[in-house]
Write a structure and sequence with these properties.
The protein is an alpha/beta fold. The protein is about 40% helix and about 15% strand. Strands 1, 2, 3, 6 and 7 form a 5-stranded parallel β-sheet that branches. A two-stranded parallel sheet has the order 4-5. The longest helix has 15 residues, at about 85-100.
Length: about 200
């Protein structure tokens, strides 16, 4: 279920989401920044990373601190190139790792935002809801590092009443500059961060 839009008259609502983690070093740093800022986010995690020693505890910490945990497949493939059974396997392998941390309203973000009727049908059968994004700073691109991605994102947020912001907690330059991004968004008139619900 989507967040309620337009609760701020002429305002800018921003939902924070992270893909491709958890990272054993960078994700805890992001969690510290979010805690200091009093903000909540959605972490779309990859099963291959969660399966590494000690990483499940980072997922636990994120959930315990009020963040939502979403499924980002096991190995980060383009799901549209897989059979229905392969799609199901990618989602199930990660679900089996994170089930105790997922919200009742299960969330999935297909890698690259790639989905089709087959993917949608499998996710529906597995009781997952697709969450895409509206703001992509392409923080992984060399051209947007170390902090150009901030302006790319802020320029997009300024044009929208409701933004679902995408970034990556495996990118060191994103993590290192995330607090600065928060301050820049907070400087936008009538901008506010909201939780995904």
């Amino acid at each position: 279920m989507a967040s309620v839009y337009g609760t701020l008259q002429g305002g800018r609502e921003v939902v924070l989401t992270f893909d491709d983690g958890p990272h054993p070093k960078y994700t805890p740093f992001v969690l510290d920044v979010l805690k200091d800022a009093g903000l909540k986010a959605v972490f779309f995690v990859c099963g291959q990373r969660v399966a590494n020693p000690g990483v499940l505890e980072i997922v636990r910490r994120a959930r315990d601190e009020g963040h939502l945990i979403g499924n980002h497949t096991y190995s980060h493939p383009d799901l549209t190139k897989l059979t229905a059974d392969q799609v199901r396997d990618e989602i199930k392998k990660t679900h089996d790792l994170i089930a105790e941390f997922e919200p009742d309203h299960r969330l999935c973000r297909p890698p690259y935002g790639a989905h089709n009727a087959t993917v949608d049908n499998v996710l529906r059968e597995m009781d997952y809801h697709v969450v895409l994004w509206t703001v992509d700073p392409e923080d992984w691109k060399a051209a947007n590092k170390p902090d150009k991605w901030i302006d790319v994102a802020v320029n997009q947020i300024r044009t929208r009443g409701h933004s679902i912001f995408l970034c990556h907690d495996i990118q060191p330059t994103t993590v290192q500059n995330f607090a600065a991004f928060i301050e820049k968004v907070r400087a936008i008139p009538k901008a506010t961060f909201i939780s995904y619900s």
